[in-house]
Design goal:
With 268 residues, the chain is α/β, with parallel strands linked by helices. It contains 9 helices and 10 strands.
Length: 268
Amino acid sequence: MVSEEREDFGKREDEEGPSDPKEEEAVTHLEKFFGTNKEAVYFSRQLEVIHEDRWFHWITNRALGRLNEQGLIKSEERTLSSGGKIILLWHRAHRYYRRDAKRLVGLVNEYANPNIGSAIGLNAELLVLEGFAKNEFVTRGRNTKGKEWVGSGHDLDFIFERDGIAYGVEVKNKLGYMDYKELRAKVALCRHLGIRPLMVARMLPKAWIKEVIDAGGFALIMKWQLYPYTHKELARRVKAELGLPVDAPKALEDGTVLRFEKWHRENP
């Protein structure tokens, strides 16, 4: 969990090539955003997620880097109690940012605690396992890589089957995108095993979703990061204070699995 808070400005290693034309739009918008919120402190991942309906995370990240280089916003790297890093951002006119920064880092320290991070990851797997079982998908394997798989060392969280069709399932319950190279490795593993890939993730870029679809699979986008129900108060605070899409349900919404079930029935 901690590692996903680490974010550097500039071109992402997994996104080589020219800047997306949407970057200029993001720069203009974020300049106005900070101008409207001059007394607030944010961190980079937070702003990427908040604006993900408009731009890919790396576009927002690059735009923030440009604003920082221009001196329109200021930044400071902080070390979390667990050893992870976050980059704080605030408008250059915010003179007394330290109090706000301390409060923000305190809350991030809570949810980035390795024990809580592990519980969040495991919680999503358990919710998915229960939700698919309710819809008559049978578990055929867990943490499966295949006897002859030597491609990358990766495995799959689950293999589900229904109506004679098997799916290699990977669950990613994190704020940031999963690693692109890992996604491609999971799809390749499914191809090796002769099953369809099913990526269950909080969020993925549309181009990556298309890759999964082109491989005969499906991407089930959750939108929300799912905390254990026992951490519902922490989830409430993260949502209220940071504006991040987190929740602590006791089970997956029925409609979540039904979206995939509908696709399953229409793609025998």
